[in-house]
Amino acid sequence: MTTAFPLLRLPYLVLMPVLEQMKFLDRIALSLLSKRARMYVKLLKMKNEYVNLKLNVDYILSIMDVIHCKSINRFVVSEISEHDCIPIVAKLPKIDEVVVEYDWSFNVLTDKALFQKEKRLLKVLRTVLSVSSAVTISYRFQNHNHLREILKGKFDAVILKWPDNWITLNDLWITNAKVLEIHTVKLDVRDLNRYFKLWMKNICNDRLEYLEVRIYDKTSVDLLLDGLNAVLVPIETQREFRVLGNVKRFVPGRFGTDRIAFEFDITRADGRQATIRIGTWGTVCFYVWPESTNPVPNQSSLISTFYNSCFHHFERLFLRFLLACESFFFFFSTNFNWNRDYDVHPICFYFLAVLLACWFLNSLF
């Protein structure tokens, strides 16, 4: 039988070098034993660019405090505990991506129990999604309204991976994400066509930069592009599309056999352009061009440019008009013995008419 070594009773100057020699994960494990152990480990000021830990939510805050973690790259929800974890989850810092990947259908649960568990899941998501910029769903929601609540959020990216999540036109219409990826077979091509028509009328998600739909079946091009006035672009045309600041390339399907078969450009009512890429096995990618590449300026910019140009010409002509009037009256009074009682109104009206005519011609040219 071995006797436990009183490690934390060592003097500070002796204890700290011992802790420094421990492995990174051993230090984290030591910090979970007591508040005193956590205090000493925290004094080491451990820093690591990337830490991959799978643990209970009760230990998250303690470990993040020890390693001085300011943000979470990926927060995975794999199980929902029975007790209330909202007070702990609410203290989490910025989260880059939230992932829901657990499948409760393998557990023998009644519909009522499954519904209650889903409600607890939604409470957790409401808390963490408020500090997150992206969410990946690999779970089939029993209540479709719960999924729609997530789709309404203003995220940078929303990715749906569960094949049984049926997506309708209303689901697409209410989305606010900049990037939306749907890896599902249950999406009607007609609904996708109607969504593109809504985008062309500028009455749907104006934040959208990229939409990807993987149907895993051959898509009817005529049905997808019906009424879009799409312009065919040669496949060999080399173009790069940026999504969230990064170059987005065409990603083949899950079997790696999907390639670009067609590429089309469509134009919205306000001149904004987008490109539709269709793969050989049903992958549809929709890229929205940045406003800076919009070849047709909007109406407000035209009015502003015309107004500034006219104002500049009017100011210049008005100064010339004042100088001309001053010169004319000076010349008239000195050479023709001008009488002050003489009516000068016709002369003023004449100069004003000439001024307006010159201003109008200058504004046109």
TrEMBL record:
UniProt keyword terms in alphabetical order: Membrane, Transmembrane, Transmembrane helix
Record-annotated membrane-spanning stretches: 317-338, 344-362
A Pfam family annotated for this UniProt entry: FBA_2
Name by which UniProt lists this protein: F-box domain-containing protein
Xref: InterPro entries: F-box_dom (IPR001810), F-box_Sdz-33 (IPR012885), Zygotic_Embryogenesis-Asso (IPR053222)
Domain F-box: 4-53
Superkingdom per UniProt: Eukaryota
